[in-house]
Model the fold of this input.
Amino acid sequence: MKVRFWGTRGSLATAGPETVRYGGNTACVELRAEGAPLVVLDAGSGIRALGASLAADVTRIDILLSHLHMDHVQGLGFFAPLFRPGLEIHIWGPPSTTLTLRERLTRYLSPPLFPVALRDLAPDLVLHDVPTDEPFELGSLRVTAALVIHPGPTVGYRITDGRTTLSYLPDHEPALGSRAFPEPAQWTSGLALAAGADLLIHDAQYTEAEYAVRVGWGHSTLEHAVLLAREANVAKLATFHHDPSHDDTTIDALLKAVDRGGLNVFGAREGQDLDLASRLT
Ligand SMILES: [Zn+2]
Ligand SMILES: [Zn+2]
Done:
């Protein structure tokens, strides 16, 4: 499987010279595997450039949404493949007990927040509640989704092609309610999704000082991400959902200071390509 980061920022797109290395676009990750449709994880502002780069021979795209916060859906209306005739597009999102996925997406993709309603924008779009009770298949890929700790219905994903495994937990606060995170004998949010993954893409939005005043906001510190990754025995951790107030220099300094405990850790950078079968970052 091959991964490309199109958006790594959390909360709000943050363009400017001081974020040019790690990137300013919000969450969007492309996943390619042989025998599978093109998979797109989240539809943040990074999805616009992904759409513009797509080859003409792509016939099906599956967009897997972790949840519906704006930073994960705001690029949808600007995803040019929605207007390409004959291209099949599916959107998967977490189930809600009150409104369908279409109704929830239409709250943003309709006037006055957006000039066109979702049904007029992309009449052939296929929407699915993502199953959280059993894995499902997208061609050669097996996808497991599970609810994780974050405000509102939110899922994390575990995707495998049988050879390599990716775990995607972009907005996640597994330490919430835990006295000494992680607690090995206790259930830990996201741990089963991450177990043994070749690459874990995980929320690392806050410093410890920022987290101290934002407990319950749904995000992790870099230290929490490292601890969860070590507990899950992953091969590599890509820190993700960079805070808008953290410029490139700040992210470099945080990564340099963290106790990695031997783990391969790097900050996800917009435009970065990774081959999960490769040992290199
Ligand atoms: Zn987010
Ligand atoms: Zn969120």
Notes: The CA atoms of residues 97 and 128 lie 14 Å apart. The domain at 2-264 is CATH 3.60.15.10 (Metallo-beta-lactamase; Chain A). The chain has one domain: 2-264. The two ends are 14 Å apart (CA to CA).
